[in-house]
Fold Enoyl-CoA hydratase-related protein.
Amino acid sequence: MAEFVTLELPEGDVARGVAVLRFARPPMNLLNVQLVRELAEAADAVAADPRVAAVVVYGDERVFSAGDDVAELFGLGSEQAAAMAADLQRDLGCLARIPQPTVAAISGYCLGAGLELALGADRRVIGDNVKLGLPQIKTGLIPLAGIRRLALLIGPGPAKDLVYTGRFVGPDEAKALGLVDEVVAPDDVYTAAMRWAAQFAGGPARALAAAKAVFEAGPHGLDRARGEWSALFETEDRLIGTGSYQADGPGSAEFVGR
């Protein structure tokens, strides 16, 4: 049983809906090694569950995550850090490996490792009072998992500014940079994230996963797209989708997720 992470799955053997991956380590949801490992294990579980069409990742109403557990990092030596770096880096990127569309519902603060985690989601919804940033430079460290993904998302210039200065950004700047996708009232963050995720229930799961794989392939996306596109011709959803499109136009297919 996980100590800090809970996973709410859609009910029923054939249900295809929204799963909620929630983590809570009061009072500030600081990410330590155990919590990040539990998040990665939950992400692996939801990725393999055919009932899940999309995933909402949520901290709590007050704070998504105030960042790294600096007290835990303070006691590490260089050999210990080197031994754990690969696993911690992989675990912080766990949301990107979920094949289903994934949205982070962000309240309060999303800093350091918390923002690195959220960068792996396909979408970020924040409250209009949220502060975001990567302040690791102020501790004499750097983000372990988020630099490359941040640069791809907002461009190398703005990414360098955020990483080198460690400064926080508010909702308006975050939206202008492309760091987040939607800004809502604080009380509406979870609802807005659920609304976005719910649109994928009953969708073409294999095609959505294929599209996500191409995005994640980065500079190798063209090669990956050829393989993913060709493989979709083996799926039931491709037959259903192309057939219904010819007969009734777009939006008429009833996909089965296979």
